[in-house]
Every structure is written in structure tokens, then in C-alpha cells.
Batch of 2 targets.
Target 1
Amino acid sequence: MIGTGYLGATHAAAMAEMGHTVVGIDTDPNKVATLNQGKVPFFEPGLPELLSTHVASGRLTFTTDFAAAAPADIHFLCVGTPQQAGSDAADLSQVFGSFTSLLPHLDSNSLIVGKSTVPVGTCAQLADVAATEAGAVVAWNPEFLREGFAVEDTLRPDRIVVGVRQPKDADRLRELYQPQIQHGAPFLVTDYATAELVKVSANAFLATKISYINAIADICSATGADVVALAEAIGHDDRIGSKFLRAGVGFGGGCLPKDIRAFMARADELGVGRSLDFLREIDEINMRRRQSVAQSAADMLAGSLLGAHIAVLGVAFKPDSDDIRDSPALNIAANLHLQGAAVQVFDPKAMGNAAKAFPTLNYANDLNAALDNADLVMLLTEWPEFVGLDPVRTGTVVKHRRIFDGRNVLDASAWRGAGWEYRGIGIP
Ligand code: UGA
């Protein structure tokens, strides 16, 4: 397993759980040392148990040495493809870098399986080099796991997509994934380009659903309609479906935002940029939401954020994660701070990562310390402990009973009943 981040570490532990001997290779010696102690360097429910079991059994080891890949039958590429600095395109340096380091350790029996999200065309490029330099075969097997559900999504995926040049090149992966296939996961064999595109078009579709409902939320706000009731009603149409129709502060994380941008950049290179122009608007709707939430906070504070004490509940990009990459919550917290508010942040898991990215915010020791003396409470990530807050008890801790529900997860009437000024997004 080359690359041991959210994807690689989970995939490594899952493969060990399935009975394989796995070696994880990463260029970061600190990460490798942590993983070899059976510890996970990020928060992912269920992963520490799985990882520590298989590190203890000796079936799962980690190293910085690419030579350790030599005895492996299958080499999974799980490295990151972040957004390039100063461009919408994906930065493929980790993909090409790890592939180049792996090459000397391959032979004609090696199967390289790409899992990273890459621009269409990347796999064919790697396959040509692997064939010429080592006589090895490349397949593309995009990963669809969600953070927070990574273990479950890996052991029980809803589909397995494998892009290959020859249908027989999929045979070893069909064998490897037998437990998942027997559990009902469809095994779909495609060409390289289709497999690469399945991944980005799925993420682009999810991003589109979220921005769509956020755009409708704006119309609801202008008319006094209720976007939560609306989403429920349209979701009963199974052609639409109710998932990913939660209006709120918008999408973030290490995948959706950078993937739609890389998709647009690649379409431009291919001369079909016009076809994905709508994704620019999806991105705009999403980014505008961050500004409009800060504006709503100012509105609730009679127009000025200056000197206001604001409790920000949640900075992770979503609950059950400590990931703050492109997090709307953290972006909004920083924006409020830059506009002169005294921001007290609390998040159950993401405090360390947030403090590294934005050291100038105040990080409260616990939820009560964040709420203490607040003029305004902003719920920005729907962690269960925030969703379950008691409006009466919370009202005794803050200075003013004002709450902005950036995820539409609180019971508005209960909060209003306890004397709070309550606002959500696209709800009356
Ligand atoms: C996403 C995809 O869901 C995975 O299938 C994919 O494998 C992954 O990206 C990836 O490419 O690696 P993830 O980034 O873990 O997974 O997060 P999601 O659960 O998709 O949530 C993304 C963002 O959308 C979060 O900020 C979340 O709060 C937001 N969201 C989600 C909404 O605002 N409304 C919704 O209705 C749903």
C-alpha cells in the first residue's frame, strides 16, 4: 500500500482483515512510526481497533523503504492528489513520485492498482511506463469511501470499479475482492478512462446535489419557505433521492472541492471545458455560502461583528472526522475572527488540526468554555453532542440567547421556546 493517509491506512488495515499480508509505504517517517505502534495518526471511527489488531498479529507493517514492495503481488497507489497551488488542476507529484520509486521493485508479475483520484488519462500514462520498464500491468480501482465511514465503506463497498486494458487484467482484483463481491458489491470492469471518470463524475454529482439544495435554500429564505421540508418532499421521488440534500454551510473536505476543480481543469485541457462550466457555478454557490453565513452572524449582532463573543461549535468539515481541509466551518470561524469578533472554537476531534492551520483563533478546552459568555452561538459541524444540546441549560451559560444553526439540525421551536433567537439556513 503506497501512501498511508485516510485512504491507504484504511485500505491496508482492511486488506489485513481480509487475511492478506500488507506492507504500507509512506515517505513520512513520523506517520510510519505511529502506524507501526498500531496507532492511527488521524481520527477515523473503527480504524484504530482494526489497525492495532493486525499490527500486533504481524500481518500489517509500515516502512519508508520502497524495497519492501518487491515481494508484493499487488501494489495499491493511495497517495494524495491535492489541488495545485495557483491552479485548479490536481497536483500529481505524489502519484508520479511514488510510481517512480516503486518501478525498480516491479517485475512482470506485478499488478499496480491506482486508487487515488486522478485526472482522466493518468492511468494510461503510468501503464505505458510500467509495461516498458518492468513488463508490469496497471489497473485503476477508484475509491469511494467516505471519511467517518471509511472502514465500513472499504469492507462493504456499494460497488467496485476496475479500469483495465485487457479484461483478464481484472481477474486478480476479482479474486482479491471476493468477500466484498459475495456480500453483494457489483464488480464493474471498464477501460481506464471510464474508471477514472466514474470517480470524479460521482463526486461532481454529489457536489452538485449539495449546491443545488443550497441554491434552493436561498429561494426559501426569500419567500419564507422551508428547505428542510422541501428536501424531504422532493426526496420521496426515488429518481431524486433524499441523500445529500441537506442545506447548510456547504461542502468541504479533501475531496469534493478539489475534485470538481481538477475535473474542470482537465476538461479544459481536453477542449471540452464548456461542458463542465456548470461546475464553476456549483463551486461559486458553495463558496458564497461561507460569506453569507458570516453576514447572517453580523445581522444577528445588529450589523457588527466587532468585539462580539462568538462560540463556534465544530470546525471539522463534517462530523466523525478531524479533517479540516477546506472546511466551511473553519473558514467561517476565521472570517468572523478577521472581522473583529472574539471567536471561541470547540470541536470534539479537530482542535489540533484547526489550531495548526489557524493558530490565531481561540480554542476552548471544552464545550462549556466555548459557550461561556457568548453573544452568539454558531453550530457549524453537526457533531451529535451539538445536535443534542439542551436549549434551557445552554441558555444559562451564554450571555445572549442567539444561535445560528448552520446545518439545520436543531429543533427551532424548542430553542425559540427556551427564549433563543434562532436562525437556520433556508428555514423560516
Ligand atoms: C466524498 C464522497 O462522498 C466519497 O464517496 C468519496 O470517496 C470521497 O469524497 C473521496 O473522494 O475520497 P467525504 O469527503 O468523506 O466523501 O465527505 P462527504 O460525506 O461526501 O461530505 C462532503 C461535504 O459535503 C461535507 O462537508 C458535508 O458536510 C457536506 N454535505 C454532505 C452537505 O453539506 N450536505 C449534504 O447533504 C451532504
Target 2
Amino acid sequence: MKFFIDTANLDEIREANDMGILDGVTTNPSLMAKEGIIGADRILKHYVDICNIVDGDVSAEVIATDYAGMIKEGENLAALHKNIVVKIPMIKDGIKAIRYFSDKGIKTNCTLVFSAGQALLAAKAGATYLSPFIGRLDDVSQNGVDLIAQIRLIYDNYMFETQILAASVRHTMHIIQCAEVGADVMTGPLSSIKGLLNHPLTDIGLEKFLADYAKGNK
Ligand code: E4P
């Protein structure tokens, strides 16, 4: 299972990367705005800064919602760095744009996915990654992990190569449940990744080992 971090914060990306477990980064316009990255030039430079930290796929989202606009923007983004993945919304022109980029060998991440039907369309268009937003589904009383399992079954039935990127992950249990049902990738905040480290028995055990060592090595 690949681990992506869902942030545009360079310090958090560095921290996750330094742990040695980071496979990539996802961003979106809201995450860029949260870091105060505003204006086309700054946004493009920020993507390059992210690519210079982590050696893995970095999703950069188009703002255009029409086919021609998405192609122009996506080509500019893809030209920034070899690791850029063009992130495209799940809309009709988006599907057409995913097909265009797929035919050109440019990686795509189909975002804002909330149903199995949308997942089928994105896979048929040749998306590299598919991003079902599991946390936002949970927010409206629909089980997000169940959707990941449903898409896993469908993709396996037809051997679609599109990778299921569980997005909108909010906490450690999301990560574990996504691993159980076979998500290829998860993207979540640094807190969800670091949360996997925690167990009180680990802390108690380590404290005891160190205390016993100290007793015998005075
Ligand atoms: C995915 O790529 C999105 O950036 C992200 O996971 C959305 O998460 P949120 O629902 O926590 O905003």
C-alpha cells in the first residue's frame, strides 16, 4: 500500500518523507490556499518545491472545468516535473481530458469520486489514480470504506489498472480499513500517518526496558 500525504505544507511533507515511508503527495486548491499559496506563479513554484522534497507522484489539480482549459493547464503542470500527476475532477470534460492525457502517457488522478459508476468511467478513460473521498462520504452517513471495497471488486473483475487512492482519509482506522479492503494508495494528513505509531504497550514496554537497562548499567 502506498502512503501519500494530503497537504501543501512543506514542513509536514519533509517530516513524513524523513520517516522513510512516503510515496507521494496529494494537494488540492483548498490545501494550497490554506498554506497561503496564491497566484499562478507561486502555485507552480510550490509544486516544484514539493517535487524536490519527495521522490514520488505529486498530484497537482487543474482549476479549469472545460476540456480545452484542462488540457492547457494539465500540460503546463505536467511539464513542471516528471513526478507531477495531473489531478482532474470527475466531470464529463474531465473524463475526456483523462483519456487525452492517458493516450499521451501523462499520469492522472481523477478526483472528487463518490460512486462506483464514476470509478468505472475513470478506469475506462485510463486514469492512473482514482480518488474516492471516504471521509466526506462518512460525513453524510455513507460508509466510505464500503465504496473502496466495491470499487476494488469491480476493478479486479475487469483487471483495470487504475490505482484506487483512498482520499479524504481522516484517521488511523481509515488507513487500516482501506488496507484491509485492498486500496492501492491512501492519502491523509500527517496526524493520521503518525497515529499509526501509537500503542500504550509500546510506550510502557520501552520505559521498562530502559529502566531495567539503567539499573544494570549504573
Ligand atoms: C484528495 O486528494 C483530497 O485532496 C483530500 O483527500 C480531500 O480531503 P478532505 O475531505 O479532508 O478535504
